[in-house]
Design goal:
The complex is a heterodimer of chains A (about 375) and B (about 140). Chain A has about 375 residues and is of the alpha+beta class. Among the domains of chain A are: about 10-55 and about 150-240, 2-Layer Sandwich (Gyrase A, domain 2), CATH 3.30.1360; about 245-370, Aminomethyltransferase beta-barrel domains (Elongation Factor Tu (Ef-tu), domain 3, Beta Barrel), CATH 2.40.30.110. Chain A is built from eight helices and 22 strands. Chain A has a six-stranded mixed β-sheet with strand order 13-14-15-12-4-16. Chain A has a six-stranded antiparallel β-barrel with strand order 17-20-19-18-21-22. In chain A, α2 (about 40-50) crosses α7 and α3 packs across α4. The longest helix of chain A has 15 residues, at about 125-140. The radius of gyration of chain A is 21 Å and the shape is globular. Chain A starts with 7 loop residues before the first strand and ends in a 12-residue tail after the last strand. The longest helix of chain B is centred in the C-terminal third of the chain and has 10 residues, at about 130-140. Chain B has helices at about 40-45, 95, 100-105, 120-125, 130-140, and strands spanning about 5-10, 10-15, 20, 25-30, 35-40, 50-55, 60, 65-75, 75-80, 85-90, 115. In chain B, a hairpin with a 2-residue loop joins β4 and β5 (about 35-40). Chain B contains five helices and eleven strands. Chain B has one domain: OB fold (Dihydrolipoamide Acetyltransferase, E2P), CATH 2.40.50.100. The chains are: A alpha+beta (about 375), B alpha+beta (about 140). At the A-B interface, loops of A face β6 of B.
């Protein structure tokens, strides 16, 4: 291990290590909490109780100026002109000229001239450079401020979340609709920069941005009220069964490794085909006209293969034909079986049909399903 | 038989003094001409939640140090190695439905296979508990 390679520490690092005794590990260049009490246990906490994720490694970027909207319209595939103040726009994609995905993000509108974006941790620096470059090339007057090292961020997720907030005197959070947010609020006597009804779990929940000292106090209050710390490994197992995508697995910039963005079947209105002029549009429309070679699907292993764990790169077969590959896989303690996501040749992607996954030379059957693989989700308020 | 606790990088692990060990984190227990094996507390803690296993076939002939099965943790697959050469005479089928036993009770109910030894001298070549603790502290694999 090179002596020079140092991991970034989030503003909550000390608290995680010393007070919460988190098992730390690496993600996207940061040292983050991997696990606390057990991955399967934490997965169930999020689906049945209330868990707190420390997501301070994710980027928090504020954009201000007269040309923020044109900049966001140029970078992202969604038409964000329809987004209302104090609402998140819904997820969207930033493409490169090959119509491959650079990042999936969700812009937050404070006003026409003030927006927030949350780049994924591994792509924060890349996206900051990208935003600046696009602004410069187009003469957009935008000020871009990186708040990642000033504010912490947590995601409180699960069906018991509102109960927990009620216990700490913040039951008003239930007034927020999903994707709605507020700034400059107070929770547990602490100043909160932003609170949104959002998350990446499919459960009801809230994300909070606050300065480190305030964040720690809020964290402590939530834990006292019954929320439990959950780590990044169960963040992955949770998102896999929801059908949410992860860079490096379902998408990436390299056209040799990843299909174009429409193959992703991201859903959730991430691409507005009626919008013109975004980066990657020409290639994307060309792929759309041509028809997709691959599409992303869900896989749920047969009951008797419930413990046949599928992983990124495992090949898929119909009879003796290789028809695709697994992009992510995990055992789901909630569904009590192994599930995953995969790219399948569009000619063989018949939902409800079985397909074989090759695991160490042997074949195991799974069903091709659409997302989410978890019933009754996402929870929308 | 006693249990010894040791520490590596601030984390605590257990070994049993009546067992032998490998550099690949298996434990071995001599039972007459057979050896029962499993993975150590160090291994299960490093793997974290184990969600699946691949067991060898009963009757399979195995060589010491050969990969004879697999342990599926959430993030990766780890090979299981034979501690001795011989014939697999028993496998713990409970693990197929309850792989979490490997985390909960790695030295007891989480046993994985029983091998009938073809060369009993091989057992004496395995690491003593002290040597295994040294290996873990040095971070060798």
């Amino acid at each position: 291990m090179g002596a020079e390679h140092k991991l970034l520490k989030t503003v909550l690092w000390d608290f995680q290590v010393k007070e919460l005794n988190a098992t730390m590990g690496e993600f996207g260049g940061w040292e983050v909490p991997m696990m606390y009490t057990g991955i399967m246990k934490e997965h169930m906490i999020v689906r049945t109780d209330c868990g707190i994720y420390d997501v301070s490694h994710m980027g928090r970027v504020r954009m201000t100026g007269p040309d923020v909207v044109p900049l966001l319209q140029k970078v992202f595939t969604k038409d964000i002109s329809k987004t209302k103040e104090y609402w998140m726009s819904g997820p969207t994609l930033a493409l490169n000229e090959y119509a491959r995905v650079k990042d999936d993000e969700m812009p937050y509108k404070i006003s026409d001239e003030e927006w927030l974006v949350v780049p994924n941790a591994p792509y924060r620096e890349k996206m900051l450079k990208h935003f600046a470059k696009v602004a410069k090339e187009n003469g957009f007057k935008v000020n871009i401020e990186d708040l990642t090292f000033k504010l912490g961020m947590i995601a409180v997720q699960g069906p018991k979340t509102v109960e927990v907030f009620e216990k700490i005197g913040a039951g008003w959070v239930d007034d927020l609709r999903t994707l709605q947010f507020r700034t400059n609020e107070e929770i547990a006597g602490q100043k909160v920069f932003l609170i949104s009804r959002s998350g990446w779990t499919g459960e009801d929940g809230f994300e909070i941005w606050a300065e480190p000292k305030a964040m720690i106090e809020i964290y402590r209050a939530l834990l006292k009220a019954g929320a439990k710390p959950v780590g990044i490994i169960c963040r992955d197992t949770i998102r896999i069964e929801m059908g949410f995508v992860l860079g490096g697995h379902e998408y990436g910039e390299d056209p040799k490794e990843f299909p174009p963005a429409n193959s992703l079947r991201y859903g959730l209105g991430a691409i507005d085909w009626s919008k013109r002029g975004f980066i990657g549009e020409d290639a994307l429309r060309a792929y759309r006209r041509e028809g997709v070679r691959w599409i992303r699907v869900g896989i749920r292993m047969r009951k008797r293969h419930a413990r046949a764990i599928i992983r990124q790169g495992y090949k898929l077969y119909v009879e003796d034909q290789c028809v695709g590959w697994v992009t992510s896989g995990t055992y789901s303690p909630y569904l009590k079986t192994t599930v995953g996501q995969a790219y399948v040749d569009s000619r063989y992607a018949i939902f409800g049909d079985f397909i074989e996954v090759e695991i160490r030379g042997k074949r195991y059957e799974g069903k091709i399903l659409d997302f989410p693989l978890v019933p009754g989700r996402p929870v929308v308020k | 038989m006693s249990v010894v606790e040791f520490e590596v990088a601030g984390k605590k692990y257990l070994v049993r003094t009546d067992l032998r060990y490998t550099k690949t984190d298996e434990w071995a227990k001599k039972e007459d001409n057979k050896v029962r094996e499993g993975i150590t507390d160090y291994a299960q803690k490093e793997l974290k939640d184990i969600v699946g296993v691949e067991l060898p076939e009963v009757g399979a002939e195995v060589k010491k140090g050969e990969a004879i099965g697999a342990l599926e943790s959430v993030k990766a697959t780890a090979d299981l190695y034979a501690t001795v050469s011989g014939k697999v005479v028993e496998v713990n089928e409970r693990l197929l439905e309850e792989p979490e036993l490997l985390n909960k009770d790695p030295y007891g109910e989480g046993w994985i296979v029983v091998i009938e030894m073809s060369d009993p001298k091989e057992y004496d070549e395995l690491l003593t508990p002290e040597a295994y603790i040294e290996k873990c502290k040095k971070g060798e694999h």
